[in-house]
Amino acid sequence: MPWTAKDAKRFKKGLTSAQAKSWASIANGVLRSCQAKGGKDCEGKAIRIANSKFNEKEIEKMARELPNGALRFVDEGHGCTAHVEEFADGDQSRNKLKMVAYSGGIIKNHWYWGDLAIDLSGMQFDQAKYPILAEHDTDKKIGFSTKPIINDKGQLVMPENATFVDTEASREFQKLSKEGFPYQSSISARPLSVERLEEGAKAEVNGITLKGPGSIWRKSVFREASVALFGWDRQTSASAFSREPIELEFSETVITAPPERDYKPRKQGKEVNMSMNLEELKEQHPELVVQIEEAATAAATAAFTEEKKDLESKLAEAQAANVDQGKKLLELEKREALRTEKELLAEANAVWLDKLSKSSIPDRMFDKVMPQVKHDGFVKDSVLDVAAFSQAIEAEIKDWEEKLPVDTVQGSGFSEKSIASGENAKGEENLAEENKSIGDRLLSLTGQGKKE
Fold first, then answer.
1. Could you write out the DSSP letters of every residue in 324-351?
2. Is the pLDDT of residue 413 over 50?
3. Which of 221, 317, 345, 373 counts the most CB atoms within 10 A of its CB?
């Protein structure tokens, strides 16, 4: 052929005049070279290579004419509806707007943009209040609200506290909606940056993948939201108003599919037919198979070595962290054990002191009595058996009280020892005689003599 700049725009949308001329020059050069070498599918190859030269290159920002209806969207099939719910507000009832304006998904088969997605992260809201209309008609005002919000489902929704205006269109919408009449929602916006995806190209937007052909508005400005009847968009897209041109300035990027790679290896200046199977390739070009296998092995080895180093590094870090964590755990266990033992000792001493304070044992002997019954034997699972411990203490105190001497004072100048209950009568008599003998000796020393 050769191709012209006009032909270029059939194969690559969105090219400027200068870019179209460059595209034609590249395509024609590839075509001539391929044909001179006796190649196959030279035209397809030339188109693909020319397209690839402009892959993801942003076409200059310029003023463009668009149909007015190209700025309005109905996201059908994704739950984008509008209705009114009544709720109590003090002594009165008020209407609350429930409106999902845009789902964040793909608007299928838009009459101008094709499959379209609007990047919500790039949508701008530069006004304090936004109108809510009926079918984008400024003569049919429903109400107004503050800026839309993006909910936890990634949907663009209008605030529920929207204010309804007193118009016929608003009253009709509120009345019919509460009666159950179905309305769908629609939005109007203005693009600032657009990506055009060609056949085979794909891109991520709002957490989903859009496959070309299609369009993505990467940056845009929100204008208004509308309530509409189902099917309204299809019925009005051909209207005079929808087709009325408006001039906008925005940038456009064309995203093409990755070019098909030419894997045909050359041998002595000739192309090798890659349609042969592996056995034929090994037979006819064994040296090529060896090169491919060696290259693949080297690449796989390098990737494995790198991955192994990374895993070993992560393992070492994890082990170091575990050792440090183990030390911290042992320290915590030590502190807990010491704290528990202190509490047990304090509890045991409290039981001892309570029992001793109620006994006849002198305070000075508490330190001798308390070690006789240790709390260690009454602890199970770090809990002191207070009842059993108390019984053992009471038995020990009783034993001390039974064996402990008690002072009894009689007359003046001497003490009489009486043996506590439990001793035999003979011991008591001996003690009485001994005391009487001591008393007689003391009287004789004073000159009083022994009384008859």
1. HHHHHHHHHHHHHHHHHHHHHHHHHHHH
2. no
3. 373
